[in-house]
Amino acid sequence: MEYITGYELTSYYGHILCQNVSTYIPWDDIDKNNADILLERVHTAGGLVGIAHPFSIGAPISNGMQFSMEIHNHHLLDFIEIINNAHPMIPDNYKGILWWENLLFNGFRIAPVSGMDFHRPCDRSDFFTTYIEIPDTFKNNTLAEQFTNAITNCKTCVTKGPIIKTNLTNNSLFIELLSKEDGFLNEIDCKDPLYLKVKTASEETVVSIDKNLRTDMNELISSTDSVIVIELYKDKIEWQNLIAIGAPVFL
């Protein structure tokens, strides 16, 4: 069995996560006004670094839960836990999603991931899960190497249903919705209507979907856009009905 080493570096002023790290990283000189110091140390140790549940309720309810450190260089972030299954979509998780999207639209390549925070037995049937895309050239690599490749290239999908897979060719965006068994959408229970929200920094559009979809992006993409974000909703477009966020599509 393979597993990824890592731990929560600190729970002061927010939770900083490090993955692919198995050595101790000093944090006792933590500075609320400069998170970059700790982020850089994780990279020096050869790891990946990210922020967990950045907008979860903090003091006085839960000291240190909400991320309150100042980041000066967001290029240091490899991933953001945009959804934590132990915390509600409103008022917590949706703010993390919007923060991540805003950073993407401002030129920072940061992978989306989900978290669970297992503190007691619970039903995981409706939990969000993170899937990574593994290219053929990495099929025989270690799990740690596959994970690093997926995070650094933002090839992650956060979902509690279909897995969103995309391909952009000549401004035509092909979107596939795959089941966990690698089937196509017609193998998924689609009794409820599904809606894709396709977003760039300048525009967004909503498309009703019941099969694999090819969407002409010419009218959506402007010359200043650099990335596309894809959100999938069930029944209606409200945060509580979000079921998946695909890997960002870089233009």
UniProtKB/TrEMBL annotation:
SUPFAM superfamilies: PHP domain-like (SSF89550). This is Uncharacterized protein. It comes from Anaerocolumna sedimenticola.
